[in-house]
Every structure is written in C-alpha cells, then in structure tokens.
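Input record (one chain):
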Amino acid sequence: MNWGGANDMPIFISDSSTGYIDNALIQTQSRIRFDAGFNNTAPDRAEFFYGACGCARDVPGLNNKAPGPSGKVIPGDILNSRLIETSLDYQELRLDFEYALQDNFSLFTELPVRFIDGEVLESEQGLGDIRAGFKWGLLNNPSHNLTFQLRGYFPTGKAEDGLGTDHLSYEPGLLYLGRFDEHWTAASELRYLIPVGGTSGFATGFDEDYAGEILRYGFGAGYDINISPTTRVTPVLELVSWIVLGGLVLESPSGTPATAQYKKADGETITNLKFGARISLDKKHSVYIGYGKALSDDDWYEEIVRVEFRTTYGG
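The corresponding structure, as predicted from the sequence alone:
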C-alpha cells in the first residue's frame, strides 16, 4: 500500500472507504459482511431479492402446492389460494474473497447465508444465491482507478423459502475510485443486472417474464481523518439508486388473495442514502459500520444496517 502524501501524512492510497459502492481497486482480500434489512414490502419485485415463488404461502386449510421451479409457476393460482408477503425483514451474512492474478485482473466469489422473517413468511434460513466474477482494471494509478466488473448470480438459494431468485443473472459494471488530496476520496459505480430464465409471467395478465433488468448507479465520498500513522477514521456518505426496467411485482395491501394483484415493475426507481464510517487499522484491516435509509416510496428495504470486516493481503 502507498501511505505517502502531502507533508508525509499517512494516507491509504490503495484503499476504498465505501460500504455499498463496489470497490474499484484490484486486490487480494477477504471480507465478512453482515446486513440487516427491514420492511421490504414487495420482496418479489422483478425477482431481484427473491423469486416469485418465494412471495406467497398456502392459505391454511387448502391443499395447494407451492409454486414450482422457474418457468413453471402458475401465477393465477396464487391469487386464488395464497397469502402474500407484505413486510419482510432479513439478515444476511456474506463471506467474500477476491484474488488478484495480476495488478489489473482478479477473480472473486461471494457466499451469502440468509435469514428471513416476515408477516406472512415463516422464519427461514439457509444458503443464498452464490455470486462470482472478475474485475479488469482499465485505469490504475495512485489517484484514479477505473475498473470493469462482471458478476454472475447463481441460483443456489431455495427460492420457495425466500432464499434465492431461482434463476441465473449476470451483471456487467463500471467502478471508479479517485483520490483528490490527502483527505478526500470519491467513488462511483454503474451496474446493469440482466436475468436469465426468470419465472414466466403466464396468467398474470402481462406479456412479460417476472424477472426484470435493473440499472444501478451510485456515488460516494469519504473524508480521511488520520488518527496515527497506522489508524484512520473515514466518515462516508453514499447515494445509491436502482431503476427497474422490466418485470412484475405481486402486491396485496391486506396480504390476502382478496386484494392481490400483479403490476408491472418497470419504471420504478429506488433510491437510498447511506452513511457510515470506515476504521482502517495497521494498513491491512478495516471495519465499516453504516446505516441506510430509503428515500423513495418503492424500496428493497425501508432501513438497513451494515457491518463489515475486511482484510487485504500483500501490497
């Protein structure tokens, strides 16, 4: 890592302080991340959080089977016989590892374990959808980094229990990280999620699949406060938005079939404000603690708390 700076002040040139915007730097690193999200009122929206078959549960006393694998769901049956989730809380523990094969190329994988609890859903826990991909550095110098990233999402989580989406997705993106002086850093991202083989929209009244493409973009800034030659604290502010470009959502104000209806999700925009701080220790380790709040009526969660521990190797 490069600790040099004006007046020989110790600064982490090779470090990202953000907690939500993906890291543009290419490094060998590991990360343990814990999220707690609250009050997701439409968890099946565009099959981003979980699959369509994870949203509904059988009405007690009726012998209806839960919807089947992707492409085989019969959505009209949900409106006749199932309860629909209206407010979902979740926790997710994620283990990430990135390995730099070269200075400008790395491979990474992300292993999530999810815990969910809703007003309708019973509490469930288990493996979520595993993610993996690569990062390719397009620009890499002490002040500015621009990186292409490709992430794949694999349907390893059980969608019927709300643990996965039940389909493949891939997500190309551009990541930027820049340092403007010994204190200020800025980060941004532009990512485009493309689902493959999502649930059929048959019998919903709409001629499109349940899963939809989603554009994500974010901006963040951090201000380094150097406590000692080996310790710094960085308050961070981030603004992250998603634009849903397709797909469907099942809504029911009462959580019952009586008020349930399918709607198009395209055009819905979700915007969150995140603020937190990263504490960096002995050049290799850092801890991030942050809080996020939805600014839009549509959301993936009303509030979220994130805690992360990161270790960087080599350099």
